[in-house]
Amino acid sequence: MARITASVYTSHVPAIGAAIDMKKTGEAYWQPLFAGYEPSKQWMKENTPDVIFLVYNDHATAFSLDFIPTFAIGCAAEFMPADEGWGPRPVPKVIGHPELAAHIAQSVIQDDFDLTIVNKMDVDHGLTVPLSLLCGEPQQGEAERGGAPSWPCPVIPFAVNVVQYPVPSGRRCFQLGQAIRRAVESYDQDLKVQIWGTGGMSHQLQGARAGLINREWDNAFLDRLIADPAELSQVPHIDYGDAG
Amino acid sequence: MALEKPYRDIPGTIIFDADQSRKGYWLNQFCMSLMKAENRERFKADERAYLDEWPMTEEQKQAVLARDLNWCMRTGGNIYFLAKIGATDGKSFQQMAGSMTGMTEEEYRDMMIRGGRSIEGNRYIGEDGDAQEHRQPQGAAGKNKGA
């Protein structure tokens, strides 16, 4: 049976990807950030799963205003890095796991969650920056073994809408997470699956309030995420809006 | 019943809801088109001509030509889409974010290195934080712009 071996969480700021791609990770501005990821990268090397289920948000890349799925699961065999306006990131294509993805889609939909099934899409920095941060740069050695450099394992992309209000509630996301766990654990192959989550803590991108960071709120959120996620899931959206 | 909008009392913030989405549909679809290299080249070669291919309002076109992201958002632009204009211009997101505050790139970057903008006075309209209407524009870039 498949089992969830770990959950992993990281930011995915596009500039982090650009810093990696432009070989700036050693610069004084960036060094503290990349040094902070070293233990996690080492841990990933020692605990590489068979599949990563990566929950992220699409930044108006795969989905324009034509279609705005609240939850979308990538069931394709592969996903290309997207061109977000500065050309695609120079990273390997993402290999999917269509069989497990289809199983999860079926299980979760039959569990009453209405997922959008995606059979073709490009993936943006929301998905590729976490892979770069935790897996490191795909090595030349890997290329020698099988051709092009590749990520260490297949990835199932799972996108959550944050582009247009309303976004799903914390309660819905928490319940969906429980359904995904039931789905993974009912898959009949012996796979180690990691669940990744990525997004931002409190931060505002736009307008005169751009740059807002509420460190106290963030730390309390992270503590509650570990200690009492069910209770945390009850926090209303408006609290995310005005404080976090 | 009209849309319920409990988020209207947050200063310096436009929540991208269904009303904004309808208003900004073509502006945002134009931004989306900049994900193709050939479209970026055509836009850069003649911005006005490229914009005229889209059924955007004149104000939306002016806001794009001025690279005034706050203006773009007032006309229905969404920051995730607008970021593609910045990418086309070779700007980092930090530069784009800074441009919306009136701060110079250095001022914005310094604020972020110091831990970001404080929530104090910036939760609700009518407080006295630096994101409030009566405190705009912030920083040297905004001051110089008015001069």
UniProtKB/TrEMBL annotation, chain A:
Domain Extradiol ring-cleavage dioxygenase class III enzyme subunit B: 8-241
InterPro entries: Xdiol_dOase_suB
Gene3D superfamilies reported in the protein's UniProt record: LigB-like (3.40.830.10)
Protein name (database record): Protocatechuate 3,4-dioxygenase
Cited Pfam families: LigB
Automatic annotation (TrEMBL), chain B:
Name by which UniProt lists this protein: Protocatechuate 4,5-dioxygenase subunit alpha
Positions of the Extradiol ring-cleavage dioxygenase LigAB LigA subunit domain: 27-112
Top EC class of this enzyme: oxidoreductase
Entry coiled-coil feature ranges: none
Encoding gene per record: ligA
Region (Disordered): 122-147
One Pfam family cited in the UniProt record for this chain: LigA
Gene3D superfamilies assigned to the protein according to its UniProt record, in alphabetical order: Dioxygenase LigAB, LigA subunit (1.10.700.10)
Keywords: Oxidoreductase
InterPro entries per UniProt: LigA_sf, PCA_LigA, Xdiol_dOase_LigA
EC number: 1.13.11.8
Keyword match Lipid metabolism: no
Molecular function as annotated in GO: protocatechuate 4,5-dioxygenase activity
